[in-house]
Design goal:
Elements: H1 8-27, H2 32-35, H3 49-64, H4 73-84, H5 89-96, H6 101-108, H7 112-122, H8 124-127, H9 137-140
Helix pairs in contact: 5-6
Length: 142
């Protein structure tokens, strides 16, 4: 089992869903084990990948008007968004459950290109003369 951080709004939604599943389980006389499932099938069983893909994922994409994509792509979206927002790569590694930091870096290293390019562009501030003073920002700091 792995624990991952999620936004508070998602946690609130999941708690509400859990309550709905508890109520459904009591109405349908599900066993205590079945009532523990967060995303059961309508019959109260563990949802297998094929059932999820055909009855949940594909209809969800269609309703959202999105093109087909594998569910696994959500993992990559999560990691990409976190790294783009500046999350530490070691934290993302732990969230994804990668065995090594190298696995995470090898998979997502290309994302840093834009950030590094922006950093290089930011150097322009230190190399460009200020107004009419002729002094560079780097000279001002000394």
């Amino acid at each position: 089992m792995r624990k991952v951080k999620v936004p508070a709004a998602l946690l609130e939604t999941l708690h509400g869903h859990r309550e709905a599943m508890t109520l459904e389980g009591s109405v349908k006389n599900w066993s205590p084990e079945q009532r523990q499932l967060l995303f059961p099938t309508p019959a109260g069983r563990i949802m297998l990948h094929g059932h999820f893909y055909e009855n949940v994922w594909q209809p969800l994409l269609a309703k959202a008007g999105l093109p087909h994509r594998k569910y696994h792509a959500t993992r990559h979206s999560f990691a990409t968004w976190m790294l783009d927002e500046g999350a530490d790569v070691r934290w993302v590694q732990a969230q994804l459950g990668h065995a090594t930091i190298a696995q995470t870096v090898d998979t997502y290293a290309h994302l840093d290109t834009a950030r590094h390019a922006a950093g290089v562009e930011a150097l322009t501030r230190y190399l460009t003369p200020l107004g009419g003073s002729g002094r560079r920002i780097s000279e001002r700091a000394t």
